[in-house]
Write a structure and sequence with these properties.
There is one protein chain. 43% of the residues lie in helices and 8% in strands. By secondary structure, it is mainly alpha-helical. The radius of gyration is 12 Å and the shape is globular. The structure holds a DNA duplex.
Length: 97
DNA sequence: CCGTTGACCAGGC
DNA sequence: GGCCTGGCCAACG
């Protein structure tokens, strides 16, 4: 299993209405957070891999490189039931553990 | 094969 | 409390 595949495995395993942070995934796989970000950037299976459920440790979203803008991502997450505090995800209710 | 490059994160200024 | 810096490690050219 390649590094990308493992990252995709975890991301695709995030249930609806929950989110994960890049750092958490990286720690789980024993990698650097940069690798996780790179993997999601190179993500080709965007339909099967909900990369919008992956956010910063702060709760904020990736700007620019994402799929059209963070506002879109925000809408998607809210649509799935994720709570937002301003421009950040509410970890108290929506963090996947 | 080696240098560059990142959807990051933590610490310092 | 916002901006800059360094460090981390895999993928790309």
């Amino acid at each position: 299993m390649k590094t990308f595949e493992k990252i995709y495995e975890i991301v695709s395993g995030i249930p609806k209405g929950k989110v994960l942070t890049y750092g958490d995934i990286a720690i789980t796989l024993g990698l650097s957070p940069r690798v996780v970000g790179y993997a999601l950037h190179a993500n080709k299976d965007s339909k099967n891999i909900p990369c919008h459920r992956v956010v910063f440790k702060d709760g904020s979203l990736a700007t620019g490189y994402a799929f059209g803008g963070k506002d879109i991502q925000k809408k998607l997450l809210i649509n799935e039931g994720v709570d937002f505090i301003g421009e950040k995800v509410d970890f108290k209710t929506s963090l996947f553990s």
